[in-house]
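// run 5 | inverse folding | seed 20
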């Protein structure tokens, strides 16, 4: 971690200034690489986004997060690709010389947008963390939806993400809306958490007043 000291002052997806170039190697090395993911739906530079819940897909294909603006007026569930996603570009001579002096000789790389899917979420229960959950097969996302939960999928066929990405030789969609499968409202206060059983067709949700609800989802 010593080579990351001071990086918070200059952190960017791509280094532009001399101070940032001092930390540039940690963004582009092959292993233990640092990457800043900053592509979000309807994002404005005047807004700060807070990630209140983040989980990794069971197969490790993407990360799924629940986030809100700093004033809690807007909330989203987002799916970001975490597979290799690079294009190689030429490094200008000054930058090339600087990186070579620091022992970095490989081509300069830039990262494409990682946002795959998103959906707007209700902003009730402001200030509380709303945990997401994913089914064991990775096809369903469960998110807090007011006084209930909402099941989301990548498409209307409830396909696995790998099948969507490679079907008909099409490139995986970017910034597509998540498909709403169903909504279940069985609480009297805002739902804050949910979890799928790892080996049974069972879903559990919990809300602010401590009520826990069990579901047997049938799709």
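// decoded
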């Amino acid at each position: 971690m010593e080579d990351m000291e001071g990086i918070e002052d200059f952190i960017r997806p791509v280094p532009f200034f001399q101070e940032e170039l001092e930390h540039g190697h940690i963004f582009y090395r092959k292993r233990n690489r640092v990457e800043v993911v900053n592509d979000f739906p309807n994002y404005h530079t005047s807004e700060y986004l807070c990630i209140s819940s983040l989980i990794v897909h069971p197969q490790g294909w993407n990360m799924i997060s629940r986030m809100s603006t700093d004033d809690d007026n807007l909330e989203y569930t987002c799916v970001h690709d975490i597979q290799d996603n690079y294009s190689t570009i030429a490094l200008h001579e000054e930058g090339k010389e600087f990186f070579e002096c620091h022992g970095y000789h490989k081509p300069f790389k830039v990262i494409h947008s990682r946002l795959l899917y998103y959906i707007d979420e209700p902003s009730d229960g402001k200030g509380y963390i709303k945990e997401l959950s994913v089914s064991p097969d990775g096809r369903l996302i469960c998110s807090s939806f007011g006084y209930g939960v909402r099941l989301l999928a990548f498409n209307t066929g409830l396909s696995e993400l790998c099948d969507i990405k490679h079907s008909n030789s099409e490139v995986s969609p970017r910034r597509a809306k998540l498909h709403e499968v169903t909504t279940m409202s069985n609480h009297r206060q805002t739902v804050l958490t949910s979890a799928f059983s790892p080996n049974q067709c069972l879903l559990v949700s919990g809300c602010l007043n401590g009520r826990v609800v069990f579901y047997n989802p049938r799709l």
